[in-house]
C-alpha cells in the first residue's frame, strides 16, 4: 500500500512539472490557492515564481524516485527524505519572499 502512495505522489509531481513547463502554472496555482481569491502573480513575478516552483518539484521528484528505488534497501532514506523535503520547502519560501516579489 505504501508503494501505491509513492507512485501516486510521483505521478502528481510529474503532472505538475509538465503543467509548469507547458506554461500552465497559473492553472496550477488556482488549484492550490484556495478561496482567498488572491492571485499569486499579483504578488510575485511570474517567471521567477514558476522557476522556483519547477525547481522545488524537480528536487521533490528526485527525492521521491530515490525513495522508491532505494527505500527498501536503506530504511534511513525515509528520514533523510523528510529532512530534504523540509529544507527544500524552507529554501523555496525564502527565495520567493526575498527574490520573487514584484
What structural category characterises the helix and strand content?
mainly alpha
Count of individual domains: 1
From the alpha carbons, calculate the radius of gyration and give it in angstroms.
15 Å
Are there runs of 5+ residues with pLDDT below 50, and where?
Answer: none
Task: Report the oligomer.
Answer: single chain
What's the end-to-end separation, in Å?
Answer: 44 Å
Instruction: Report strand %.
Output: under 5%
Query: Roughly what percent helix?
Result: over 70%
Q: H/E order of the elements?
A: HHHHH
Number of strands: 0
Which geometry do the CA atoms define? Answer: globular
Mean pLDDT: 86
How many helices? The count is 5
Largest sheet: none
Structural write-up:
This protein is mainly alpha-helical. The chain has one domain. Helix content is 77%, strand content 0%. The protein has 5 helices and no strands. It has helices spanning 2-21, 25-32, 40-43, 46-70, 77-98. α1 crosses α2 (25-32). The longest helix is centred in the middle third of the chain and has 25 residues, at 46-70. The protein is globular, with a radius of gyration of 15 Å. The N and C termini lie far apart (44 Å). The mean pLDDT is 86.
Give a concise summary:
This protein is mostly helical and 102 residues long.
Amino acid at each position: 500500500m505504501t508503494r501505491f502512495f509513492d507512485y501516486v505522489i510521483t505521478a502528481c509531481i510529474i503532472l505538475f512539472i509538465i503543467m509548469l513547463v507547458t506554461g500552465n502554472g497559473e492553472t496550477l496555482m488556482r488549484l492550490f490557492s484556495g478561496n482567498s481569491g488572491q492571485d499569486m502573480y499579483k504578488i510575485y513575478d511570474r517567471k521567477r515564481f514558476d522557476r522556483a516552483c519547477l525547481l522545488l518539484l524537480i528536487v521533490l521528484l528526485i527525492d521521491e524516485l530515490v525513495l522508491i528505488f532505494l527505500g527498501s534497501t536503506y530504511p534511513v532514506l525515509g528520514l533523510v527524505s523528510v529532512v530534504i523535503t523540509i529544507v527544500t520547502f524552507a529554501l523555496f519560501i525564502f527565495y520567493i519572499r526575498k527574490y520573487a516579489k514584484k
